[in-house]
Queue: 2 jobs
Job 1
Amino acid sequence: MNLLRSRLVQAALILIVSYLIFQFAIRPPAPFSVLSLYMGIVLLAVLVYVSSDSDSWRAFLRPMHATLVDPGKRALRLALMIVIPLLLGYYAYTQAAAKPQAPPELRAVHPAPPDTIQFRGKDFKIAGGDNPLRKDAAAIPKHVAAGGEIYVRNCMYCHGDNLDGKGHFAHGFNPPPANFQDPGTIAMLQEAFLFWRIAKGGPGLPKEATPWNSVMPAWEDRLTEEQIWQVIMYLYDATGQQPRRWETAHGAH
Ligand code: HEC
């Protein structure tokens, strides 16, 4: 019972019990930052309590003072001088030691397109394919305008009203929607590659694009062939990018 009278033991018990309550009784578990905040408040309260009058404060300090200077406590002093640095060292080690990590996901962002795809039941050549709507230069502004409408109706909420991949839903997806303003996306792709990606979406990605967790929808059943070419023209027009040509692409391969 004498031990329980000691201010130091009381303070330590309050701290331990409140830690156990915060850690195990609070559901859902509080994050570490909240936990340390609570413990800081409890520590403050305990310090206020033990220092409420000078007798109690002296009683609180006495055991610590005794441990530091009493000739009879040499053995305890020595033990503490070994144990405390060891504990600190162990803590530093656990913080600094390399932790096992899941390997990064290697995902081919721009996998090689298939040579041909099936678009609504008919064969559709991707390799060497060009946007047929570009042949009639006079009609281009009309197609770009139609593509803009298609974009706003179907693509904007993922790819963003600024075409920068920051649409309303974008933050919920990993991989994030493509940022068409980035020179690493449509500027380095042929229009036929885009056609394939838009028509077949995430579900149409080949094996090297694993894990197949892209939410890019397949538009094949919702947009016509012409509409897909139109939205592609809008993407290049609105971003000021130029589609990659097949000649340069062959040189690079
Ligand atoms: C539900 C969200 C969502 C919608 C809607 C959406 N996309 Fe995507 N899109 C994505 C995601 C995520 C990616 C990146 C992953 C990938 O490449 O599949 C992507 C990738 C793409 C790419 C490939 C770009 C590259 O660099 O390889 C193109 C092109 C594209 N989208 C066009 C469109 C068009 C056009 C529309 C509208 C008709 C559209 N997207 C609608 C989510 C979406």
Job 2
Amino acid sequence: MKKLTSLSIAFIVGIGTIIIINSCATTANIAAKTGTQLWGENCIRCHNAPPSSDYSPAQWETIGMHMKLRANLTDDETNKIVAFLKSSN
Ligand code: HEC
């Protein structure tokens, strides 16, 4: 019985480690995404993504702050998307 318990604990710890490693891998994948990718994945969720030429670079800064809240994006994701929209303006 005691052996079974320590085996169970080892099993749970093992599964836990795999989950933690996998969730870090997901975070690393998101961090590696470009502004173009993030824009394509996020900005079409609620409406058609307006082309970068529709707004000036200064307007994209403001829209970025606005849509960061709407889309629940991180600072890093928002900065990448805004940089992409400004660069292809
Ligand atoms: C969760 C839904 C949602 C997502 C995701 C989203 N938007 Fe919006 N967006 C809205 C809504 C709703 C409006 C209408 C204005 C308002 O009520 O806030 C809007 C309006 C806009 C406008 C009009 C100008 C303005 O600021 O109101 C632009 C441009 C825009 N979005 C760009 C984007 C970009 C770029 C992204 C990706 C970073 C994005 N949106 C992601 C919901 C979203």
